[in-house]
Specification:
Blueprint: H1 7-43, H2 56-69
Helix pairs in contact: 1-2
Main location: nucleus
Protein name: HES2 isoform 3
Keywords: DNA-binding, Nucleus, Repressor, Transcription, Transcription regulation
């Protein structure tokens, strides 16, 4: 496949690549959610086998709740900007 020669070719290329890019984006999101689930469940004292059917929204909500309940002293302070 060469470089697009006309504006129409570029549009067609973008249109044909869109499903592939969307598939990759969704795979990245799902991988990150899976990793987040693996990190958060032990911190909440839950077994992964009991929570295998959690929805993505449940994982995000549990993570947000956990982070909100952390004491402010456990958060790292940001380095001052110059």
């Amino acid at each position: 496949m060469g470089l697009p020669r006309r504006a129409g070719d570029a549009a067609e290329l973008r249109k044909s690549l869109k499903p592939l890019l969307e598939k990759r984006r969704r795979a990245r999101i799902n991988q990150s959610l899976s990793q987040l689930k693996g990190l958060i469940l032990p911190l909440l004292g839950r077994e992964n086998s009991n929570c295998s059917k959690l929805e993505k929204a449940d994982v995000l909500e549990m993570t947000v709740r956990f982070l909100q309940e952390l004491p402010a002293s456990s958060w790292p302070t940001a380095a001052p900007r110059e």
